[in-house]
Amino acid sequence: MKEPRLTGFCRRLLLLLALCAGTAGLLFSYIPEELVRGFLFVFCGGVAAAAALWGVWQSRLLSSFSNDVCETVDSLMEDRELQNFSPYAETAFSKVQGKLLQYYDKMKDERQQSMQDKQTIQELVSDISHQVKTPTANIRMLTGILSEHELPRAKQCEFLNLMSVQVNKLDFLMQSLIKMSRLETGTFALHPEEANLNNTIARAMSTVLAKAEKKHLQLSADCDGKLTVRHDPKWTAEAIGNILDNAVKYTPEGGTIHVSVRPWQFYVRIDISDTGIGIAEENYNAVFQRFYRAEETAAEEGVGLGLYLARAILTRQNGYITVKSKKGEGSTFSVFLLSG
Known about the structure:
This protein is an alpha+beta fold. The chain contains nine helices and seven strands.
């Protein structure tokens, strides 16, 4: 910490004392001893008085400085505008005031972030309680029927199969909610690397292959086997897999789903096209919202998290996703990944 500069008054006082001392030294050889003693007495008294004045002046400066600092702290605590704040001044108080303001701004940002995180957690808890209500109620009902009634073996198997479906739905929901909460609260990290994109797409397609075959859907892909892109293979496969899963759900039997990859100058574009039921243009943004389900898709299995998770994963890799569709004519979801 630099020492404070002396004021003009202090400099003049010290100069005067130095001159007095020099003059006394010159006169000692010319004046009587009694006068020398008197002069020394007066000189020492002057030095003592000057020291006392210096102490009083420093005390007032310190008191004024502490009062100004306290006033600044009070203003920041009460969210009041700082008075007489000059960020370009070179005084000690301005420097302290500037640091306090920086600390206040940092604490304010952290407080706002904490409030946002708290709101996110509250929304997640609300969503979870709402979404698990139906499968939990169904499981409770089926369990009650099986435990309170004597049913034929075939009927028991039917109820057990229904219960298994609800348990699987509940498990899928909880896994999706865990992924969603990790994404929203930033408790997981993506690890982008220069990796083969064809392998990532193949990994994503393998997750829906059985469902596609069950509906006799034609599933194909067109991607250069040597093409590499900087991305997180695991989570990107998860995102593309979610888009493909939606395509399989909403494409009628015998339809087609095609994945095509086209390198651009700054991005690599991945188009996932299907011949499904399509999406109304006014719902383009809504399909990426959490828990969104269109009325015409209510009968299909799902909770409305797949596309939401896909967009969140891609966004965290500096990528993005778009959709083009027509009702009854299918949809094309386009994924863009940075090529550099």
